[in-house]
Structure formats: structure tokens, C-alpha cells
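Section 5: illustrative case.
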């Protein structure tokens, strides 16, 4: 998702005139449904490239 920048983004990402970043959120759940992991990453628009690969084994 495209998000407006905040003060932390300005400090950490060297955004120049950019006013938005790409925000990627991910949730991983265990087999019983409990959430195991949550991550959120923020990326510069001009540097972002996303490739998604998931494999589920039974």
C-alpha cells in the first residue's frame, strides 16, 4: 500500500521531496491459527520492487 510519510520515514529513508512510501505488512499464523509473526516494512517509491513467492506443504 502507498502511505504518506511520517517523521521517522523522513529521518531514516532520505526521501528528498517524496511524500509517500510503500508499506508492506505481513502476518504469519501457526497451524492452530495463532499469530506467530507480524512485520511492517517501509520502502522508498523509487527503490521498491516486490516479488512474492509462497509454498505450502502438507
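Designed sequence:
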Amino acid at each position: 500500500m502507498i502511505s504518506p510519510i511520517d517523521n521517522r520515514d523522513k529521518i531514516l529513508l532520505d526521501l528528498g521531496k517524496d511524500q509517500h512510501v510503500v508499506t508492506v505488512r505481513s502476518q504469519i499464523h501457526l497451524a492452530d491459527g495463532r499469530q506467530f509473526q507480524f512485520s511492517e516494512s517501509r520502502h522508498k517509491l523509487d527503490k521498491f520492487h516486490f516479488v512474492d513467492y509462497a509454498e505450502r506443504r502438507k
